[in-house]
Amino acid sequence: MATDRFQAPDYYQVDDLFTDEHKLVRQTARDWVKKEVSPIIEEYAQKAEFPKKLIKGLAGLGAFGPYIPAEYGGAGLDQISYGIIMQELERGDSGIRSTASVQSSLVMFPIYTYGTEEQRKKFLPKLASGEWMGCFGLTEPNHGSNPSGMLSNIKDAGDHYILNGSKMWISNAPFADIAVVWAKDEAGEIRGMILQRGMPGFTTPETHNKWSLRASATGELVFDNVQVPKSQMLQVKGLKGPLGCLNSARYGISWGAVGAAMDCYDSALRYSKERIQFGKPISGFQLTQKKLAEMVTEITKAQLLCWRLGMLKNAGKATPQQISMAKRNNVEMALHIAREARQIHGAMGITGEYPIMRHMMNLESVITYEGTHEIHLLITGMDVTGENAFN
Ligand code: TGC
Ligand code: FAD
Predict the structure, then answer these.
(1) Which CATH architecture does the domain made up of 241-385 adopt?
(2) What's the CA-to-centroid distance between 264 and ligand 1, angstroms?
(3) What is the pLDDT of residue 1?
(4) Among all residues, which ones are annotated catalytic?
(5) CA distance 177 to 204
């Protein structure tokens, strides 16, 4: 990839809304991405491998559990800082943000929120430092958008449960040390539990041949009579357990998507000024300006949406439905910008010289995971009409 010359657009001086701490967090994350992610990410995406060597640096940034209290190893930051970190990581690559999202919101969050004090002390500091990596198993081969139908199940066997079933499309699964897994008990209630690599009957085969999120490892979780000690169970029952974690991850994605969009816009703007056709820079053509003007408008709107949602989250007032709106809007916005930026780069846009095609392909996963574009629309639809159109 060409040298990373990224300059963030800030058309409405959104910077003025951030505290000095937010700006420091952002500068640190931005510098780290430029130094550590940009020079290697294209190579790792091309060879479809997660760059494990970034784990220590991610932990050092506070990207694992940004809002988890310091007493458990987290960075103790607010929700805006958490969002800013996700924005900067996804500016580098959605797969890197994915790894941090899963570790923070889908593994550390449930252990912090639904775990016993013993579980918090045992797992959170090691997850915050990156010594242990985690994954989150909700989706199954036949239950994606409707996790309430899951077939994975546990049976009571005295001091432990016996777990059977499988999960699919699980980020970080191939190398995770622990897995937060959701399965139904004998009463049909969804329960959460912490599995550790090496438990007999627990395997994590890798999923190959992805065209998207290639620098993130994806796999299955297979449970064949796994004995789960009762001390590994989380203290929550029902679908609200896993969905509560998704609120936090979806919020982070709404910021992350802005990062990917900013990178595509910035690259397209620079390219349009440098690329000469018909004797002048292509930035001088009205059709190019339409694309760029619309991009920066949509980015600006999304930046403001994120900031406001973050403030609501800081105040404990953000609803799941508001989070759905931001995730849906911002990911679609980023995908559209990636496609438009690809056009501005002409043929160069399909190469690894520029980050555009990688962002575009990544965003095809981001628009599907953590609730598809359609599911989030139905969540908003139900919120405003009071009518359930899911089934
Ligand atoms: P429904 O009857 O509506 O609700 C069941 C219970 O859950 C509560 N609830 C929520 N609680 C917290 N947060 C939310 N967002 C919640 N949404 C609902 C609800 O109040 C109820 O509680 P209670 O106490 O009455 O039992 O459930 P439903 O079965 O009709 O489903 C609703 C639907 C379709 C919106 C939900 O299933 C859904 O969101 N589906 C999408 C599935 C999804 O997002 N999967 C993501 C898997 S993880 C992933 O993709 C990680 S990618 C990671 C990466 O690499 O970054
Ligand atoms: P389906 O649910 O089969 O949906 C197929 C299509 O039907 C979609 O367009 C959908 O919007 C539409 N549809 C479904 N129901 C309705 C409806 N009621 N009304 C209208 N349209 C509908 N999951 C995890 O648990 N953990 C992870 O770490 C994880 N990581 C992932 C990483 C990647 C790279 C990917 C691609 C996925 C990951 N997922 C993970 C799974 C992801 O959450 C699911 O793919 C997603 O929830 C959608 O499920 P599905 O793929 O089975 O699609």
Answers:
(1) Up-down Bundle (1.20)
(2) 31
(3) 58
(4) 370
(5) 11
Ligand nearest to the CA of 181: 2
Q: What residue type is assigned to position 377 of the chain?
A: L
What average pLDDT does this structure show over 228-254?
98
Question: Per-residue pLDDT tens for 166-204?
Answer: 999 999 999 999 999 999 999 999 999 999 999 999 999
Q: Which ligand is nearest to the CA of 90?
A: 1
Residues shown for the chain: 391
pLDDT in tens, 28-49: 999 999 999 999 999 999 999 9
Ligand 2 in reach of 170 Cβ (< 6 A)? yes
* Rounded CA Rg of the chain: 21
Give the bridge partners for 135, in sequence order. 179
Q: Is 124 exposed, middle or buried (0-12, 13-18, 19+ CB in 10 A)?
A: buried
> Could you tell me the distance, in angstroms and rounded to a whole number, from the CA of residue 59 to the centre of ligand 1?
28
Continuous segment of H or E residues that includes residue 304: helix 286-314
Ligand 2 centre distance from Cα of residue 372 (Å):
6
Tokens of 213: 């999120």
For ligand 1, whether the C-beta of 240 sits within 6 Å is yes
Q: Return the residue whose CA atom lies nearest to atom 11 of ligand 2.
A: 374
d(CA 38, CA 89): 10
Architecture of domain 14-128: Orthogonal Bundle (1.10)
Six-digit token pair at 286?
């009205």
Cα 254-260-262 angle, rounded to 5 deg: 100
Cα separation, 319 vs 210, in Å, equals 33
Match domain 134-237 to its CATH number in 2.40.110.10, 1.10.10.60, 3.40.605.10, 1.10.10.10. Answer: 2.40.110.10
With b meaning 16 or more CB within 10 Å and e meaning fewer, what string describes 52-78? Answer: eebbebbbebbbbbbbbeeebbbbebb
- Pocket test residue of 142, 182, 240, 365 for ligand 1, highest count of atoms within 8 A of CB: 240
Q: Residue 369: which of 91, 153, 176, 97 has the closest Cα?
A: 97
Print burial letters for 291-311: b (CB count within 10 Å at least 16), e (below 16): bbeebbebbbbbbebbbebbe
User: Which residues of the chain does CATH 1.20.140.10 include?
Assistant: 241-385
- Confidence band of 2 (pLDDT split at 50, 70, 90): low
